[in-house]
Design brief:
The chain is built from 2 helices and no strands. By secondary structure, it is mainly alpha-helical. The protein is elongated.
Length: 70
Amino acid sequence: MDTYSLLREFADSWVMLALFLVFIGVVFWAWRPGSRKMHDDVANIPFRHEDKPARSCGCKGTHKNDGATL
């Protein structure tokens, strides 16, 4: 058996099974019971700062000139 045929047979059987199991794992990870809060938080990212832009440093109100835009 030449190399191409051997690799083709391996890819048709075991690699397909491995990719299917990875797919099932990703679907399970996305739909797991505890992930709803995380998905809701990520879905609302564009709507977090409608009235003013977010601070670039990630801190919450610790600057001297709190009303100024950074």
